[in-house]
Amino acid sequence: MNDSVYDGLLETDSSQWAFGTSFEDPLAGVDTTVPAGVDRTALATYCLMLGDDALITSQRLAEWCSRAPELEEDIALANLALDLLGQARLLLARAAAADPACVPVLPAGSPVPPEDALAFFRDAAAFRNVRLAEVSNGDFAHVVVRTLLFSAARLALLDRLRSSRDRVLAAVAAKGVKELTYHRDWAGRWFLTLARGTEESHRRLLVAADALWPLRAELTTTHPVERALAAAGVGADPATVAGEVDVVLDQVLAVSGVQRPRPAPAPGGGRDGVHSEELTGLLAQLQGVARAHPTGRW
Amino acid sequence: MTGDRRDWPLYEVFVRGKRGLNHVHVGSLHAPDDALALRHARDVYTRRNEGVSIWVVRADAITASSPDEKDPLFAPSGDKVYRHPTFYDIPAHVPHI
Fold it and tell me: Model confidence over A79-109: pLDDT tens digits?
């Protein structure tokens, strides 16, 4: 008799699985040393930027759980969230490995791994995500537009990062490109569907697009840390993908019959830790339990 | 395109697993059209690394046998034991039969 019905799931014999086996470790066989000549503090900061974009967007997507208009879309949104959470975990772990000084110090004996310490024990001002990621959720059109803007820019950026001299970043990017290709496809299809759907779905889509479109600029604006790491062959300069991102977005707008939203001033500064109250609220929910039990085992 | 949920047709989903040679029926879902049905199937039925190929087909496109026809359709084969190749000896040196 097994003590737990789940014991069998952990054994190496996979013949019991009806379908899924051979799960992959994206970092298997990857050289994890930091490339020579790279400023470790800058690399850590860069990984936090990429990781925090994924973590905060993931959390906003996860908030949709049980609230989507259809069961199938509820699962789809959770899938997108989990993809980004996986990217965030690898990137925050890389930040901690590059520069352990960026990791909040926890009580002695705490079993919390460094990537969790970064996710759960930093205050808002230490987060380096773009402002688009933290905006509070709206209706379904809102999450479609945010996902389109975010995934289009991130896909183009990770596509460049696949040739990073940092083999860990290159491996995370290679994994992420497959995921984000689906995210962009999902968002593009729903953008088209809502635009050409009912009068009400069209109206809601325009409201969301007008509100979120200006925020996309921060995704393709180069921060000095990004510029320095791009010059070192480790990062990718987001400004260099702005053109191709616009081409993709214009294609989606064209087939959807939607005018490109008018330019409008948008808040920035996310890369330097300038955030809205909305991020504070998100973090309170994300971090509350972990902070109440800094030595807890999960 | 995306009206009330009641307007979304039902689709049946078939997935070919990594070790499987053929597509196996895994369940059903609702979707507004064929393209989104395929996406929904990916999201709902291949989350645990199951599949390498998906078929979706509208349930109303399937012609199925009725339980009422069970006897006329299937009972006649129940006593045709001679249709099974079990009435000759298999030589010991012939494998894979």
Answer: 999 999 999 999 999 999 999 999 999 988 8
User: How do residues A278-295 score in pLDDT, each as one tens digit?
Assistant: 999 999 999 999 999 999
Rounded Cα gap, residues A71 and B3, in angstroms? 15
Name the pairing type of β-strands B10-17 and B24-30: antiparallel
Give percent above pLDDT 70 in chain A: 92
Q: Record the tokens describing residue A115, joined without a space.
A: 């990537």
**One-letter amino acid of A70:** E
Is the pLDDT at B2 greater than 50? The verdict is no
Contacts of B30 in chain A (CB under 8 A): 70, 72
pTM of the model: 0.86
B24 φ/ψ angles, rounded to the nearest 5 degrees: -120, 135
| A-chain residues near B20 (CB < 8 A) | 19
> Which chain B residue has the Cα nearest residue A73?
B40
Cα of A197 to nearest chain B Cα, Å: 5
The token pair that represents B33 in the structure block: 């059209």
Q: Answer whether A244's CB lies under 8 Å from A156's CB.
A: yes
Distance between B75 CA and the closest CA of chain A, angstroms: 31
Count Cβ–Cβ pairs < 8 Å, chain A vs chain B: 57
- Distances in Å between the alpha carbon of A223 and those of A91, A218, B25? 18, 9, 50
3-state SS of chain B is CCCCHHHCCEEEEEEEECCCCCCEEEEEEECCCHHHHHHHHHHHHCCCCCEEEEEEEEHHHCCCCCHHHHHHHHHHHHHCHHHCCCCCCCCCCCCCC
